[in-house]
Write a structure and sequence with these properties.
This protein is an alpha/beta fold. It is built from 5 helices and 8 strands. The radius of gyration is 16 Å and the shape is globular.
Length: about 210
C-alpha cells in the first residue's frame, strides 16, 4: 500500500501586467526539485478565471486526495515570499481573464466571511527564516480580493482548512525562479511537519 503523502501545488496562468507568471514558473521549478521520496507532488496551472477555479479545485481534491494543497500566486507588491493566513469570502469586484466577475461578489454564498488555514503560518515563517535559505519569508492576512484570495478561500472551504497560499514576487525582484522554488520547497515541508504534529487543532470559521 502507498504510504506516501500527496501534496498538490498550483500556480497561475499569466494575467494583466504579468505576461510571465512567476508563480507558475516557480512551481514548475519546484516540480523538478521534488519534495523527497516520501511525498507525491502534483502540480497544476490554475486559470485566472473565477468559474474555472470552482470546477478545478474540487476535481483536484477528488482525484488526488491530498494531505495538503498549496496555491502559489504572484504579487507585484511583494518583495518577500509571503504566507497568507486566511481567505476572504466577499469583495470580489475585479473582472478575470474572461472579463467575468461573480454577481454575488463572493466565493461561497452563505460561507463564513473568513477561513483560516489550520497551519500556523507564523511558525512556518520563523522556521524557514532561521534555516539560512537566503530567501525572506513573511506573513500576511490579506490575499488581495482577486483570484488568489478567491482560490484560497474556495480551497480552505473544500479542505476544512488544509490548504495554504503563498505569494511570490515577480521574477528577479529580487529572486530567481530557482530561489523561489527552493523557498517553496522549504515552506511546504515545514507545513507538512507542522500538520503532522497538529492534527488536533481546529480550524477557525470566524462567524460560525
Amino acid at each position: 500500500m502507498d504510504q506516501k503523502k500527496t501534496v498538490i501545488v498550483t500556480g497561475f496562468e499569466p494575467f494583466g501586467e504579468h505576461a510571465v507568471n512567476a508563480s507558475w514558473v516557480a512551481v514548475q521549478e519546484l516540480k523538478k526539485l521534488g519534495l523527497g521520496k516520501d511525498i507525491n507532488l502534483h502540480v497544476a496551472e490554475v486559470p485566472v478565471e473565477y468559474q474555472a477555479v470552482q470546477t478545478l479545485l474540487p476535481s483536484l481534491w477528488k482525484q488526488h486526495l491530498p494531505q495538503l494543497v498549496v496555491h502559489v500566486g504572484v504579487s507585484g507588491m511583494a518583495t518577500t515570499v509571503t504566507l497568507e493566513e486566511c481567505g476572504h469570502n466577499h469583495g470580489y469586484l475585479r473582472v478575470d481573464n474572461c472579463s467575468f466577475c461573480p454577481e454575488s461578489r463572493c466565493c461561497i454564498e452563505g460561507g463564513a466571511d473568513c477561513i483560516h488555514s489550520v497551519i500556523d503560518m507564523d511558525a512556518v515563517c520563523r522556521r524557514v527564516n532561521s534555516s539560512g535559505l537566503g530567501v525572506t519569508v513573511s506573513v500576511s492576512k490579506d490575499a488581495g480580493r482577486y483570484l488568489c484570495d478567491y482560490t484560497y478561500y474556495t480551497s480552505l472551504y473544500l479542505s476544512k482548512g488544509r490548504s495554504a497560499f503563498v505569494h511570490v514576487p515577480p521574477l528577479g525582484k529580487p529572486y530567481s525562479a530557482k530561489e523561489l522554488a527552493r523557498a517553496l520547497r522549504a515552506v511546504v515541508l515545514e507545513m507538512l511537519e507542522l500538520m503532522e504534529h497538529n492534527d488536533g487543532r481546529k480550524y477557525c470559521l470566524h462567524d460560525q
